[in-house]
Amino acid sequence: MTDAASIVLPNMAARRVAGTVRAIVRTLLFVLIIVWSAFPILYVVLSSFKQQKEIFKYPPDIIFTPTFEHYMALATKWTGFFPTMANSLIVAVGATLLACAASILSGFVYSRYANRFLAGSVLYLIAIRLLPPIVVTLPLFPVVDALKLSDTHIVLIVLYATFWVSLCTMIMKTFIDKIPRTLDEAAVVDGATTMQTLFRVIMPLALQGVAACAIFVFVFSWNEYLFALIFTTQHAKTAPLIISEVMDAVSGTNWGVLFAGVTVQLLPVTLLVMLAQRFLIAGLTAGSVKG
Amino acid sequence: MRRLNPAAILMLVPTHLLLLVVIALPSIYVFWLSLNESTYGSDLTFVGLDNYVTVLTSSYFWRAALNTLIVVNAVVYIELLIAIGMAALFLGGVRYPKIMFAIVLMPYAISEVVGVLVWKIMLNSGSGVLARTIESLGFGMFNWSVSPPLALSVVTLISIWHHLPFTFLLIYAGMLAIPKSLYEAARIDGATPWQEFWRITLPLTIPAILISLIFRFVFAFRLFSEVWLLTAGGPARLTEVLAVYLYQSGFKYGEFGTASATGWLMVIGSLGVASIYLWAMHRRMLKGND
Amino acid sequence: MVAINIDRFVKRYGALEVVHDISFDIEEGEFLVLVGPSGCGKSTILRMVAGLEEISGGELRMQGVRVNELSPKERQVAMVFQDYALYPHMSVEQNIGFSLELARVPKAEREAQVKRVADILQIGHLLERRPRELSGGQRQRVAIGRAMVRKPQLFLFDEPLSNLDAKLRAEMRGQIKRLHQTLKTTSMYVTHDQLEAMTLADRIICLFDGHIAQMGTPHDLFDRPANVFVAEFIGSPTMNIVPITASKAEGRTVLTLAGGGEVSLPDGTALPSLTNDGNVLAGIRPEHLSDTPTPGATARIEGVIDMLEPLGSDILVTMQVGGATLTARCTDKGQFQAGQNLTLHFDPARLHLFDSKTQMRLG
Amino acid sequence: MLRKILATAVLLAAAGSVSAQEPRTLTIISHNVHKTAATGGDLADAQNIAGEWAERNNVTLNWVTLDIGPLHDRLLREMSLGETSVDLAAVLNTRVVPSVATLLEPLGPHMEANPIEDFEGISEGLREATVINGNVVAVPYRHATNALHYNETLLEERGVAVPTTLDELLAAARAATFTRDDGTRVYGLVTTLDTHVTALQFLSAFGAVYIDADLNVHANSPEMIAGLTELANLYKEGVLPPNVTALGLDELIATMREGRGVFAINPFSRYTALNDPAASLYPGQIDVMPFPTNDPGVASANTEFWSWAIPANSTQKDLAYDLIRELSGKDATVRAALNGNGPVRPAAYEDPRIIEKLPYAAAESIGLRDASVAVPAFADAVEATTVFIEEMQAAVLGLKTPEEAAASLQTRAEELVARSK
Fold first, then answer.
1. What percentage of residues in chain C have a pLDDT greater than 90?
2. Which pLDDT value is given to residue B290?
3. Which of D92, D249, D274, D306 has the highest number of chain A CBs within 10 A, making it the mutation to test binding with A?
């Protein structure tokens, strides 16, 4: 090192200050995100423990004596709620499994093979989702009825899965794209069939994508209202239908019960998200190839 | 790139069978419906393009189309920017990731209807927590419901609130999948965090961004609950969006021809707004990606 | 005994043909190296043999049986990939044992096999680790172990050492060589590094642009390169190749360099019959040029020293002579200086002559 | 994995179809209020009228309850099928337009063979509204007649007397509008202007009629213009809440319960919800009266009502009709009213059980007496209400003058009516 390139020691004190400022800004941003995301939810959850009279009080009470009357009412007066939650669970889990299974398969093909037909069919995958679903129900309703599938879990499972399979296929494709192709080849040389390659090698590495897809499909199916309304009556009736009955246009919404129902509804989804988070940030592809 | 073999074609079957049976075939029938006049329990009467003429000459349709265009673009792009920023923030490390994650995804986890209702309660002029807070800060009464621009802004806000987790999740997962070694290499090359973000994170997240953009356009274009529950398209039908128009003109009166025609016009409209991104995705696909 | 026949291999991608009608055999237990610059088709041929690429034309026979349509597993080949291709979500033990697991080998036996391989490769202590916790050399060993454990009919190596640093590469090269000497498994090894090819191969196939440029033992390729391409590709530093004109004057052969320099050949030097009116390419390896006359080095060439590159005990001397540049590898005793006149001596038998048009070896 | 899902699916589908074939199950689709009216629901002193009938006839009642919009959407889809599993449905009068009526079983022959007890005892206005194209297609069961609710405590606090005429009401509403010290605004009049019913209730007090039973449009009448002008003035003066055009039922209820509204236009039966001690800050202090006009003693009362109807493609029409007969009987009407129903027989209000139970029985009986349907059922009736809402909102918010709005409404409604004829 003779002339131009000589090391100038950075101002460590200034750097420390900058670091602290950055940490503070980051914390503030996180707080902002929490407030933005959680405030309306917190409003719902807290209100569900308030007396009906206190719910709309201004300024709202932050500290109050919680009441469980709305939860009691949910269990005793809206007797349909908890049984329909079981239906919701069956439908949501079924739709999630079906959509994920179909999209893992097709996402793999879209990632690993390419030709004009496939590239064109990607556009089809998306374009087909553009027609508003409510219009699609016009022809579907008589068909489902004729097949004697009305008011069954299977019809909702198939419908929900179909409405997400396009997006999930594209998600799986982008994640599988990031997995080095030599891993497929290594598996083939190791004697794996295409299915074994997909499920033993590719899928474990695309879990981030699977987790994202699962969250999307589950959350959608869990809360879906329109199709559940049109295609179920009793046996397969899902929880959002009960919630909508609480929001009654004749005697007015029973806010306390509504908020209690929504709070209960939120729990399984929150658990799922916390579970899926582990897979999302796993970052398993590290160390697969190269030194 | 391998050639498509029978096994691969077989693997495409579940996805395409579902789409064909549940959406494609019904969509074709809906197109036929759009060329006919019909209602509940009636036979079809062929009327050619009359339904399209009816819709396209309706001033309500065009106002709804304009409202939709404004709201959709605002929602999609603002949401994308926030989501990228948030994902970058999360990428820099999160404390209590499980809980943070659950909190961030909560707006998406709550049913759309309930989410909108809660915001409506909080924003109710004169009684809502937020509306009164805004008022007490000296901004005057926050009476959004009679002002179409304000009402549509509220619609945009709530729509972003509800769907941000969707976009965030896609983009964050996309960013997480970027190999760490790339960052290490960049750091050795002397890249600042800012440069790292622009030169590595963002370019490599493009596929995820494309997908989230396209699907957000698809979903936003049929935005319904936010408008229906907040203003029901009012006052005086000034805040209608296309899905509300479709419901008002088609389903409320049981005019399936009009409803189907509007539906197909919405397909064309959403293809229009998302066309650049669809084209980009098609190109990537033809080139065989990376 | 011939283990593998590669018979008239052709590979096409659409209209583009990248491998043109290539045939060769591999003997049982032989270590065959395919060498060539990138894009020459060597990896493609290896992958066709592996069963990862479709064979567009020609036939692959193993033990005399056509196997074009068989999967890699059915061909009983094992492969070591350039980027290792370790399964990141599996431990080292699972990585190595994966093929056995797929073949439904009982657990106990599987573990024993993995253990045996791991011991040979000295990675027994790493079995519980994930690939991301391993160094580059360790990953390389796991990749080899994964191929070994299957006791394949044929070992395929696709540039396995190219991601390692020079020191590790030399070490692993030695290890692979020893391994082959122990296991005696038929092997096919692809590399762009001629040194690897020379050190490892029983036989080398040098490829150029989808054709075989030359096939033979390392000595064949080094001593009698069949064409200019092989001559320049094999050996380091690269062989000096200069265009010359050969003429007979007074019964003696005189080689004139294009720029005017002259090579003096002793009387009676036998040259092959020359083409193109004596306009040919002459080649001489740097290590065959010397600054001191030695027995047999009866030819001479004079020029001016242009550049010096000390290598320790040896030194590379680059000399300008009649518009051409020659490099010589000499013993370094501090005797050289840039700008100096220098006379280099060599054995005319070491001189390679090539047709200037066809680039093929003369004689 | 896929195979397992499919297997489960087939099993589930099979299970579904088996249970649908149970013998003698009568499927009823209605709003929850009808179920409560007919069965008593979970009330302490429930009158299980339908349940008793079911037990006598060895029938299982399969009760599907939905909210108003979804209920009709689902019912119409069911009635479009070749055959439906829905045997009995509650329908709202405005939804039974002629095209829908053709999908309903004409009840005339059933009633001839098996008359309903004292059918003439059902309010005439309602009975007439269920005759479409000369056929009785539904039997009235529950009415929701609009009235004026008022917070007595707030009126006292402001020193305002309970009005008896329309003009007094307008003055009282203005006088009762004020802002509390903590910034809470109290509105003189609260109503939901996102629907046509309450707006037409207000306007009809001025003598305004939108479309009469013979399908004559009177939108551009002086009465209509006067009513719209008054509505617009009330909005401008802040007597109506500023978000009145987007104000839904829930907010109206909340506003009254929390004492942020003094007068409210709402059906009589809302009395219970507004005075609910668990939810209202003014329990027992919100009274109700028929909506006054400037003719003393004459009320203006717009009504909406529900009827029982049988889908024409139902498979158990006789059984369903038998249940209608049971539910429409004189005693059953009173017992349903005890369950909280709005009885469609004026005579029921004179029953001592009702007088004892409903504090507003006398007022509601006047309302029911003077009641008329807001918009008659014709082919484009639903669209006519949409047009009305649009023009009315434009007039209230000042986007148009009342005169412009009324003139535009007249033209557009005439077009709709002409199209239907």
1. 52
2. 41
3. D249
Q: Cα(A150)–Cα(A162) distance, rounded to whole angstroms?
A: 17
Question: C95-122 burial string, b = 16+ CB within 10 Å, else e?
Answer: bbbbbbbbeebeeeebeebbbebbebbe
| C and D touch per CB criterion (3+ pairs under 8 A) | no
Same-domain status, D91 and D107: yes
Provide mean pLDDT across the span B45-51: 92
Let me know whether D124 and D10 are in one domain.
Answer: yes
| The predicted structure's pLDDT at residue D18 | 44
> Which of B105, B180, B246 lies closest to A273 in CB terms?
B105
Where do the structural domains in chain C lie, given as residue ranges? 2-233, 240-355
Name the burial class of residue A170, with classes exposed (0-12), middle (13-18) and buried (19+) by CB atoms within 10 angstroms of its CB: buried
Residue A17 inside a domain? The answer is: no
Q: What is the CATH number of the domain that holds D152?
A: 3.40.190.10
- With contacts defined as CB-CB under 8 Å, which chain D residues touch A158? 9
**Check whether domain C240-355 has CATH 2.40.50.140, yes or no:** yes
Chain A residues within 8 A of B246 when measuring between CB atoms? 132, 134-135
- For residues D287 and D152, the answer to whether their CB atoms sit within 8 Å is yes
Asked if A290 and C78 come within 8 Å (Cβ–Cβ), the reply is no
Give tens-digit pLDDT for D12-33.
Answer: 444 444 444 445 899 999 998 8
Q: What is the enclosing helix (H) or strand (E) of C18?
A: strand C16-27
Which chain C residue's Cα is nearest to A188? C72
Reported as a single tens digit per residue, the pLDDT across A223-266 is 999 899 889 888 899 998 888 888 876 777 888 899 999 999 99
Residue A237's domain comprises 71-280
How many folded domains does chain A comprise?
Answer: 1
| D178 and D265 both lie in a single domain | yes
Distances D410 to B238, C169, D229, D302, D416 between C-alpha atoms, Å? 20, 92, 16, 20, 10
Domain-embedded: residue A35: no
Q: D79 CB near a chain B CB, below 8 Å?
A: yes
| Number of Cβ atoms within 10 Å of the Cβ of C296 | 12
Computed from CA positions of residues C225, C226, C227, C233, in that sequence, does the dihedral angle turn out positive or negative? negative
Q: What are the tens digits of pLDDT across the range A73-100?
A: 888 888 888 889 999 999 999 999 999 9
| Chain A environment of C72 (Cβ under 8 Å) | 188-189, 191
pLDDT digits (tens, 9 = 90+) for D342-375: 899 989 999 999 888 888 888 888 888 778 888 8
Q: Tell me, yes or no, if D275 comes closer than 8 A to chain B by beta carbon.
A: no
Q: What's the mean pLDDT when you consider all of chain D?
A: 89
Boundary-marking domain end, from D346, D368, D390: D368
Distance in Å from the first CA to the final CA of chain A: 30
What's the Rg (C-alpha) of chain A?
Answer: 25
Domain limits for position D16: 2-143+305-368
Q: Decide: helix, strand or coil at residue C61.
A: strand
In words, the CATH class of domain B60-286 is mainly alpha
D193 and D152, same domain (yes or no): yes
3-state secondary structure of C96: helix
- What is the CATH topology of the domain spanning C2-233? Rossmann fold (3.40.50)
- Contacting D with CB below 8 Å, chain B residues are 14, 39-42, 124-127, 132, 135-136, 141, 143-146, 151, 230-232, 234-237, 248, 251-254
Q: Are residues D390 and D274 in the same domain?
A: yes
Q: For the residues B115-125, what does the mean pLDDT come to? A: 89
Enumerate residues 6+ apart whose C-beta is below 8 A from D416.
D380, D383, D384, D387
D175 shares a domain with D139: no
Quickly count: other Cβ atoms within 10 Å of residue B53's Cβ. 12
For range D240-265, the mean pLDDT: 91
- Whether residues D162 and D187 fall in one domain: yes
